Amino acid sequence: MARWRATLPGLLLAGLVACGGAPAATVSQPLTGATAPAGSPGTPAATATLPAAATARAAGTAVPGVTPTPAPAPTRAAGAAFAPQPGGPVPGDWKVYRGPATFPIVIAHPPDWTVDASLFPAQSVIFIVGPAGNVDEEEYVEIVAGPQDADANIDVLRDDFYHRKTPFCDKTGIEYTERRQLTGATFAILGATCDQSDVLAFLQVASGLKGGDEWGIAMRTPYERKEQRLREVFDPMLASVNVYALFER
């Protein structure tokens, strides 16, 4: 099925702006710490006569007229890599995609699903493709981003996104609408069927506003896999979403 390809450049949310390059995953490095070397066993400690104030401090007692100096607060190691984290729990063997400044989103996905940013390299869109490895198999997650319009409304954005995703459907039927908290913001969600001549598909779209940007997430699968995919793939993926910065203009 390739009819969606002809319509996809027009499927992005209203007001989306091209980034000028394909989003690419960034690799985060874990923080590392150092431990102080242990003293040599058997070496006698040096002894000295301490002033009274020092003796009191060593004993943990207050010293009249002396204000204790608080211990410095711990800080992150200099040069440590920033590693944005998922917004929710990640199933044990799942992978985590961390986007760059041109696509600042974190999302977890099953290990046999693949992130693809190459289909429309001049636009702010990525696909996470199902196990078949081909978007034409009609099982994928699409994520788009762009700067927010002044009068943006998540319900209007969701409905517009839905209509832009279904012009190739012979018939459509809305099954439910709801709102859900994702990445600290409210997203409007819609689930529907897309009936084509040779396939019946399930489509779920979610639209939200975060930090002055518009985000849209579309999820598609053959209808016979709907319940299993919602439970085991789509819902955990949505729960893991974290938009960690402004979309880079």
Keywords:
16% helix; alpha+beta; Protein Transport Mog1p, Chain A; 7-stranded antiparallel β-sheet; disordered N terminus; 3-stranded antiparallel β-sheet; 249 residues; single chain; 4 helices
CATH-defined superfamily of the domain at 105-243: Mog1/PsbP, alpha/beta/alpha sandwich
Shape, per Cα inertia axes: globular
Radius of gyration: 26 Å
Strand order of the largest sheet: 3-4-5-9-8-7-6
- Cα(first) to Cα(last) distance is 33 Å
Helix/strand-derived category reads alpha+beta
- CATH level 3 topology of the domain at 105-243: Protein Transport Mog1p, Chain A
Task: Count the beta strands.
Answer: 10
What CATH architecture label of the domain at 105-243 applies?
3-Layer(aba) Sandwich
**Mean pLDDT over the full residue set:** 77
| Helix and strand sequence | HHEEEEEHEEEEHE
Main beta-sheet annotation: 7 strands, antiparallel
The fraction of residues in strands falls at 25-35%
- Can you identify the CATH class of the domain at 105-243? Alpha Beta
Low-confidence stretches: 1-22, 24-51, 53-60
Helix content: 10-25%
Report on this structure:
By secondary structure, the chain is an alpha+beta fold. The protein has a domain at 105-243: 3-Layer(aba) Sandwich (Protein Transport Mog1p, Chain A), CATH 3.40.1000. It contains four helices and ten strands; from the N terminus they run ααβββββαββββαβ. The protein has helices at 3-7, 52-59, 154-165, 226-240, and strands at 95-98, 105-109, 114-116, 125-129, 140-147, 171-182, 185-195, 200-210, 213-222, 242-243. Strands 3-4-5-9-8-7-6 form a seven-stranded antiparallel β-sheet. The protein has a three-stranded antiparallel β-sheet with strand order 1-2-10. The protein is globular and about 55 Å long.
